[in-house]
Every structure is written in C-alpha cells, then in structure tokens.
Amino acid sequence: MTSVKEFRVDEPATAEELGRGAFVFTDDYSVFDWGKMPDQIPDKGASLCTMGAYNFQLLEENHVPTHYEGVRLSDSDEVVDLGEALSADAAPEEMVIELTQVPDLPFENGSYDYDAYHAEADENYLIPLEIVFRNRVGVGSSLRSRTEPADHGLDYDTWPEEVVDLDKPIVEFSTKYEEQDRYLDREAADRIAGTADIDRLEELARAVNHIVTQQAAEADLVHEDGKIECLYYDGEIRVADVVGTFDENRFSYGGQQVSKEVIRQYHKRTQPEWVEAVSAAKQQADTEGVADWKSLCAESPQPLEENVIQVARDLYCAGTNAYVGGDVFDAPSLDEAVSAAGKL
C-alpha cells in the first residue's frame, strides 16, 4: 500500500512472468513525503484514476508500452476501458495493471544495497528509479540549488528570479525506494537501473512528457514537470505506476497551480513549524545515516479546514474534467476552481 492508493495483488509476478493486480485509489493525500495525512479530499481517488487511465490509453495509442490493462467499476469484476466506464456514469477508482517483482532493497551501514536488489530481481523487476522531466524551472525548484544554468545549455550566468521556460525538457534521475529520494548523475542512475537501458528510460520519459504536454495544452493547462516509473521484463521497458495526474505531475492554469502543489504551498503558509520540522528531520537522518526520518520529526501535521478541502476537491475534479474533455464530475469550471484556489 502507498500513502494515496491501495495495491492489490491478484496474481503475483514470478522471475519468468508478469503478474496481475490493481491500484485502488483512495481520497488520501500526501505532501513532503509524509505519507497519509490526517484528512481526505473527496473524489480525489476517482479523479486520479480517471486521469491516469486516460493517459495510459493515450500512451498505448502512441505505441508507448505500459503495464495498464483497464479499469474496473466497484460493482463489477469486468475490466473495461475508460470510455466504457464513463459511459456508465461512474468514474472508476480501480486501475488494473500488470505486476512485476519488487525485491527488498537492504539498508546497511548507512547505504542501500542495489546489488542485492538486482541479484533477487532476475529479468523481471520494477526499476528502482524515478525519471523526472521538467518543461520549466520554477522559482523554488531544487534544480536551482543543485545545478547551474550552463549545465543545461541555458544562456544565464545565474538562475533568474522568475520562472524559466525551457525550449528542450530537462530529464533527471532520482532514487525510488530510499526513505529520502536523491538525484543521481547518469553513471549512478545507470548502475541502479540494472539491466535496463538508461537511454531507453530517457527516451520513454521524453515521449510521455510530449504526449501529456500536448493533451494538457488542449485544456489550456501548462504541463510544468512530472516523472515516470518503469518496469523491465523480458528485454522490454514498460511505463508503470500512474502517469500524468495532478499528484504525479505539476500543471498550471493562468499562472495558478492545478496540482498537489496547491496543498503543499498551503501547508507551508499555515503550518510552517511542521514543514520546518520535516526538513530538519530529513537533514538529521541524512547526517546520522538513518533511513526512517519520520521517527526524528518533532511535529505532526494538523487537519485542513473544511473550506480548504472543498477547494482542493473542486480543483482536482474540475482539472480532470478539463483534461479529459468531459463532465466526469459535478464540479465548477476550471476558471472558478482555479480562482478559489488562488484565494487560499
């Protein structure tokens, strides 16, 4: 189980064969890697499932291999495509997927043992990387503290104080299963990827980014950044997990965020003590070589006010309606939802 969706195994994967299972999306949310927060956002799960399924079908239509098989409605065992589910006036909350092996990643003497991970993985495994793509560099982007503009062929001596739109997306690699994700140089990412080809991972990330960016533009959404995760099976890399949702990626509309970033920033403004404690705990864990940073955190998050939850719900639902080009959810227009979010 993840912090925002439940993971069900129907047929486990083996060293030779993919398995079958499902993501059951919940209305839980997570910010700052905390895991499940103390409240829920209604219809969030159905929103993310709908948007994720829509994107997987777009990828398949564009010959991008994925682990997606379809969606399942709560009152049926039948696996159907998204269009059939929506024609029944029911936004799905369950996505059926192929499963691969996810070996244990040992943590010993202050470091993770990827050799042990791959020794157990054989030729059928979830690649323990996130492949991140950026179409713009926001003012608060970690890229600014880790790199210089010249590293990306940009004609700046230092990072400007405004958002930087990129002519060519930047692709980076970060860890997937470590308690604190860290960005990697290409050599380290290649080693962690195991048998999977690092160039192919970048190629798939750029393809997914292009497709999601085009679809977003049709709804006047700006696709700012995102990531993919992939599995390796029988010599092929397939896009896995969930793609192009308001939790996985960042989108904006008229300069206002339409993503989980709205809730992240709200917590920064209203619960700064908790946000600072999270940051301090992560730094302490890194210094001490401890994997479980949450055990070092002196603060816990507080529930959101009801009006904030309603604004977040409307933003997810209105954004999904706009992205898929339909009235899947009873929600205000995207203009109205974005305006309300901007007033938080």
What spatial form do the alpha-carbon principal axes imply? globular
Strand content: 15-25%
Give the CATH class of the domain at 107-253.
Alpha Beta
Helix content: 25-40%
Query: How many separate helices?
Result: 10
What string, H for helix and E for strand, traces the elements in order? EEHEHEEEHEEHEEHHEEEEHHHH
Distance from first to last alpha carbon: 31 Å
Strand segment tally: 14
CATH topology of the domain at 107-253: D-amino Acid Aminotransferase, Chain A, domain 1
Could you name the ranges where pLDDT drops below 50 across 5 or more consecutive residues? none
- Helix/sheet category: alpha+beta
CATH architecture of the domain at 107-253: 2-Layer Sandwich
Largest sheet, if any?
8 strands, antiparallel
Mean pLDDT score, rounded?
94
CA-based gyration radius = 20 Å
CATH homology group of the domain at 107-253: ATP-grasp fold, B domain
Tell me what you see in this structure:
The mean pLDDT is 94. The chain has a domain at 107-253: D-amino Acid Aminotransferase, Chain A, domain 1, CATH 3.30.470.20. The chain has 344 residues and is an alpha+beta fold. The longest helix has 21 residues, at 198-218. The protein is 35% helix and 23% strand. Strand 5 and strand 6 form a beta hairpin. Strands 7, 8, 9, 10, 11, 12, 13 and 14 form an eight-stranded antiparallel sheet that branches. The chain has a four-stranded antiparallel sheet with strand order 1-2-4-3, with helices on one face.
